[in-house]
Amino acid sequence: MSKKKILLVDDSVTTLMMEQMVLRGQPYNVVTAKNGEEAVRMSEAELPDLILLDVMMPVMNGFEACRRIRQNLATLQIPIIMVTTRGEENSVETGFESGCNDYITKPINGTELLTKVRALLGE
Amino acid sequence: MSDLTGNPPASGTALKVEDRLYLYPGAVAVVHRPSVITTILGSCVAVCLWDPSTGRAGMNHFILPRGGGPPTARYGNHAMPMLLEEVLGLGARRKNLLAAVFGGACLLAGESREPKLGDRNLLEARSFLDHEHIPLVNENSGGREGRKLTFRTADGNAVVRKL
């Protein structure tokens, strides 16, 4: 059985590294994008099984990327976990309204991230 | 007076709201005066405890059902006793406590045969309340959507808006 693919989207190299560390050793292929525009493009090209999407990013933010991913028939069913920062409570609400399926809050907790990833992958 | 039912307060009810706070995932809040506590839930669960006689109230918001290590409100098995102890510590009377449970969405029609994360979170909350003999008077849970929960401790009104 082929490995499931996860798209990590964040403009912070540190956050991407942390997420990759959590997912390392798990049966997933990981690809990354550094802004919302790249995330939309890669979601169409790579058709990942799940997307971890940061909110505040240059070029295109996570809300807009989420909306665009949901507008495309090829990508609209991909589960999306929004990665928010403490103090961005309005972001969580907007994230759900943009079409995300669940959210986690930075700083990232490995157990929580992995449990939510597995839950949304139906594992 | 409504009691965690989510019904609007009776016409003419004047609510003196003194505090507003947003509850982050993995946290517990307890209050001794009229407050509005808000949180946003996906697969996480929030439990409200309310003593109508004293107005003491609290809410937790836990992310995962169970976990070891030092006590943290991120896990239901810690967050539930923490909420109860803190609300009792603030002067709530145990025999008067009412509970409401929210969240626990299963945000994707997963193919897993295992109980879903939202369901496991809900089970943890219900089991604790049952064990502690605290009446569960309202529940808005499950489904596929996120929820914004607003708990008004002045009258115990807990309102959910689907996101």
How would you explain this protein's 3D organization?
The complex is a heterodimer of chains A (123) and B (163). By secondary structure, chain A is an alpha/beta fold. Chain A has one domain: Response regulator (Rossmann fold, 3-Layer(aba) Sandwich). Helix content of chain A is 43%, strand content 23%. Chain A has helices spanning 13-23, 36-46, 62-71, 89-98, 110-120; strands at residues 4-9, 28-33, 50-54, 80-85, 102-106. In chain A, strands 2-1-3-4-5 form a five-stranded parallel beta sheet, sandwiched between helices. In chain A, helix 2 packs parallel to helix 3 (62-71) and helix 3 packs parallel to helix 4. Chain A starts with a strand and ends with a helix. The mean pLDDT of chain A is 93. Chain B is of the alpha+beta class and 163 residues long. Chain B has one domain: 60s Ribosomal Protein L30, Chain: A (2-Layer Sandwich). In chain B, a hairpin with a 4-residue loop joins strand 8 (147-152) and strand 9. In chain B, helix 1 (76-89) packs parallel to helix 2 (117-131). Classes of the chains: A alpha/beta (123), B alpha+beta (163). Chain A binds chain B through residues 79, 86, 89, 92-93, 96-97, 101-105, 109, 111-112, 115-116, 119-123, and chain B through 22, 24-26, 38, 40, 42-43, 63-64, 67, 74, 105, 107-108, 110-112, 114, 116-118, 145-146, 148, 163.
In short:
The complex is a heterodimer of chains A (123) and B (163). With 123 residues, chain A is of the alpha/beta class. Chain A has a single domain (4-120), classed as 3-Layer(aba) Sandwich (Rossmann fold).
Summed over residues and divided by their number, the pLDDT of chain B gives a mean of: 88
Number of E strands of chain A: 5
CATH superfamily of chain A: Response regulator
Helical residues, percent of chain B: 10-25%
Write out the strand line-up for the largest beta sheet of chain A, numbering strands in chain order: 2-1-3-4-5
Give the overall silhouette of chain B: globular
- Helical region count of chain B? 2
Structural class of chain B: alpha+beta
Q: DSSP strand (E) fraction of chain A?
A: 15-25%
- Largest sheet of chain A, if any? 5 strands, parallel
Q: Tell me the name of the CATH class of chain B.
A: Alpha Beta
Number of domains of chain A: 1
Distance between the termini of chain A: 14 Å
